[in-house]
Design a protein that fits this description.
Blueprint lengths: L2 H15 L12 H10 L5 H14 L3 H5 L3 H8 L5 H19 L7 H5 L6 H11 L9 H10 L9 H11 L5 H14 L20 H4 L3
């Protein structure tokens, strides 16, 4: 199957079977989504959703978090990955929002990436989920699934290269939705250590399936 056919097969399947998809992070505002996405770096959404209710009750917005010290925030997020760095980044991010954006989260990739602790993936998530734009955040699931399916080439060996290739081949109107398709497929079916190929409904288009099916 050629790459163009593979893209068409995958998009047609998910358009039909998953016409709506969204983040599994829990949040009540754009600021809270940004906090949750920052916490989710190298950490599961399940773990993040366990710590954010108490965190958001204490620091519901940028103003409240900007007045905190990192050690205070650390008490609420100590069970996530890299809690010390993340607590510092959260406070610094909130203070910059207050100083430069009146507490509001900016809506562009460039402005978002100027915030402490916010990289390209997080900025893309915010554009796609919070602001309804078309973006392709590339996390570990999207990176893995894109390579296994054969949507990207082996030479696409960085998140930015994967993002660039996916953006070039996916229809613009489903770009953000396709992020969720690939992410959820990687989280629940095409898992890292042992992909559940027998459960996969797109295996006929998967470049790796002939090899994995023999394991």
């Amino acid at each position: 199957m050629r790459r163009e056919e593979r893209y068409r097969y995958v998009v047609d399947h998910f358009r039909r079977e998953m016409p709506e998809a969204d983040t599994e992070l829990c949040y009540g505002s754009t600021f809270q989504l940004l906090v949750a996405v920052m916490l989710s770096a190298q950490c599961t959404d399940k773990r993040v959703n366990q710590v954010t209710p108490a965190l958001f009750a204490r620091y519901p917005d940028a103003r409240a978090m900007a007045e905190a010290e990192p050690d205070e925030v650390l008490e609420y997020i100590s069970s996530v990955s890299y809690p010390n760095a993340k607590s510092r980044h959260l406070v610094q991010m909130a203070r910059l929002l207050m100083a430069q954006h009146q507490g509001a989260v900016p809506a562009t990739i460039d402005e978002l990436m100027q915030l402490p602790g916010v990289g390209r993936k997080t900025a893309n998530v915010m554009v796609a989920v919070a602001f309804g734009g078309q973006a392709m955040p590339v996390d570990t699931h999207v990176f893995r699934v894109s390579h296994r399916l054969g949507l990207v080439a082996p030479a696409d060996n960085t998140p930015l290269k994967v993002e660039t290739t996916l953006r070039r081949h996916l229809p613009e109107d489903v770009l953000s939705l396709a992020h969720h398709w690939l992410l959820l497929h990687g989280r629940y079916v095409c898992t890292a250590r042992a992909p559940h190929c027998h459960q996969c409904e797109i295996k006929e288009a998967c470049k790796s399936y002939p090899l994995n099916s023999k394991l």
